[in-house]
Amino acid sequence: MIGFLSGQIIHSKNGSIILNVNGVGYQVFTIKHIKPTNSKTNLFIYTHVKEDEISLFGFETQDELELFKNLISVSGVGPKIGLSILASGTDKDIVSAVKNSSVDFFSTVPGIGKKTAQKLIIDLKSKLDNSSADLTMLEQDSSLVEGLMGLGFAKKEIQKIAPKIKPNLELVEQIKLALKLLNQ
């Protein structure tokens, strides 16, 4: 796997660059439009391997790379959508949107609907923030959360098991699974 590249940008177009590293040109997808320069550019690289292609995604900082990895760890979010999310705001904006359960922030990103935005928030909440989740803001899970809270479970307990419950299940099945997980 390629983890870091340093070289001169010789071409830039539509969110990707060609980085000349000792005479070898690597196509790297980036967040920002970077113009070709004579100076060296250092990029932290995420190597994405699919059946029929290998793609490189470049980031200026290790923190951007780690946030990108967290984003694409969410089911339904691939590298292209991960880049779109990173392009929609700063690292702090994205972390803040997760902490504040801002479905609207993620829904404005092309390719992300309300359900994926909600899933992003639930999945990333535990990775990016240790405080309790404001799960009542997530419409998809509000019935489940209200039902579990009505049974006496705390939001913090619900937050821990929420990523393990598939949103496409019927509410009755979600509650059964949640109770099973909460009573372990």
Description:
The chain is of the alpha+beta class and 184 residues long. It has 8 helices and 5 strands; from the N terminus they run E-E-E-E-E-H-H-H-H-H-H-H-H. It folds into 3 domains: 1-60, Beta Barrel (OB fold (Dihydrolipoamide Acetyltransferase, E2P)), CATH 2.40.50.140; 62-131, 5' to 3' exonuclease, C-terminal subdomain (DNA polymerase, domain 1); 135-182, no CATH class. The protein is elongated.
CATH topology of the largest domain: DNA polymerase, domain 1
Compute the number of strand runs: 5
**Distance separating the two termini:** 39 Å
- In one word, what is the shape? elongated
Query: What does the average pLDDT come to?
Result: 83
CATH C-level category of the largest domain:
Mainly Alpha
Please compute the radius of gyration using only Cα atoms.
20 Å
The CATH superfamily of the largest domain turns out to be 5' to 3' exonuclease, C-terminal subdomain
Number of helices: 8
The percent range for helix content is 40-55%
Q: Enumerate the spans where pLDDT stays under 50 for 5 or more consecutive residues.
A: 130-140
Structural class: alpha+beta
SSE pattern, N- to C-terminal: EEEEEHHHHHHHH
CATH architecture field of the largest domain: Orthogonal Bundle
- What does the main sheet amount to? 5 strands, mixed, barrel
Report the sheet-strand fraction. 15-25%
What number of domains?
3
| Biggest β-sheet: strands ordered side by side in the sheet | 1-2-3-5-4
